[in-house]
Amino acid sequence: MIRYPRPLVAGDVVGVTSPSAGVPADLRPRLAVALDRVRDLGFRTRVGEAMDVDGLASAPPDVRAAELTALLTDPDVRAVVPPWGGEIAIDLLHRLDWDALAADPTWLVGFSDVSTLLLPLTLRTGVATLHGQNLMDTPYRVPAPMLAWHEVAAAPAGAVLVQGAAPAYRADGFDDWATDPGVDELDLGTPGGWTRVDGDGDVDVTGRLVGGCLETVTHLAGTPYGDVDRFAREHAPEGLVVYLESAGSDVAEVTRRLFGLRYAGWFDHATAVLLGRTRGTEAPGYTHHDAARHALGDLGIPVVADVDCGHVPPHLALVNGALARVTHTADASRIEQRLV
């Protein structure tokens, strides 16, 4: 019921374009390091023209849409991995030929604003997409029990991929890629772990994964590009595991966005909701856990927070459309994805 792109194998081409924000001159050395890493993994690379900084984006929307389409429909290109997210990938949605993109599926990989493209491709066509590390993150060593995007993209249809909660995460700060473009070790100094916020007890649920960056995918609700109900009815009789992660909005904004998605029916078919760890500002007496409980706690399904799936490193590689089993106990948290 879900179509998976062909597995990435040595010698395949990884396409690189910036459908949202471009790469400024002082970060081009980091881009070069990331491309070298992809080549070291055994893949060829093809870098597009829409890579510079042109206001909020890398190029005019028609140019970005055309280049993304060209790479995703080129039979030699088996994965397209933007350098990172940005702000306004949403302006491409009405410019893309979704049937053409789904004809011979290619892995589209990334997170943040890239999820504005990943999620509609899966929801509209039933083609799996990969919410994983961006290209600029690729040089980092991904800690166990997590997987890198290229490991997931190389898995054959029918594969079972098992990941778990990160033992530690980065609580603050970012690496200065302009000063040290070759950094490849994540600074993970704070003990990790997921937190069930809707109540007590162990979690063991199954459903097809859908989700993305809260700040961007919220704007898809109620549009042809965010029809979660239709996807569930056509592709997910098992129900959905909905994952969402905030790029850093304050706790009040996160509350509003979660309620907006609830009112739009995004959780009507959900067997669980996973919320990514966030550094967004909290309010006196009102935390991000409180926001999750307030907006989603009475849905009657598990709501698990502090999941490693977003802007706080490290980052799980999650396949939109994959059949997931999520287990969470006091001792361990695990997500198993079946590419079926």
Structure in words:
With 340 residues, the protein is of the alpha/beta class. It has helices spanning 28-40, 61-73, 98-103, 115-125, 149-153, 214-217, 228-235, 251-263, 288-296, and strands spanning 13-16, 44-47, 77-80, 107-110, 129-131, 160-164, 168-169, 190-191, 195-196, 203-213, 240-245, 270-276, 303-307, 318-320, 323-328, 333-338. Helix content is 24%, strand content 22%. The strands form 3 sheets. It has an 8-stranded mixed sheet with strand order 6-16-15-10-11-12-13-9. Strand 11, helix 8 and strand 12 form a beta-alpha-beta unit.
Q: Give the low-pLDDT segments.
A: none
Mass-distribution shape:
globular
Largest sheet: 8 strands, mixed
Q: Reading side by side through the largest sheet, how are the strands ordered?
A: 6-16-15-10-11-12-13-9
Q: Which strand-content bin applies to the residues?
A: 15-25%
Radius of gyration: 18 Å
Q: What's the overall average pLDDT, rounded?
A: 98
| Total helical segments | 9
Terminal CA distance reads 8 Å
Helical coverage, percent range? 10-25%
H/E element order: EHEHEHEHEHEEEEEHHEHEHEEEE
In total, how many beta strands?
16
Describe the oligomeric state of these chains in a short phrase: single chain
Structural class: alpha/beta
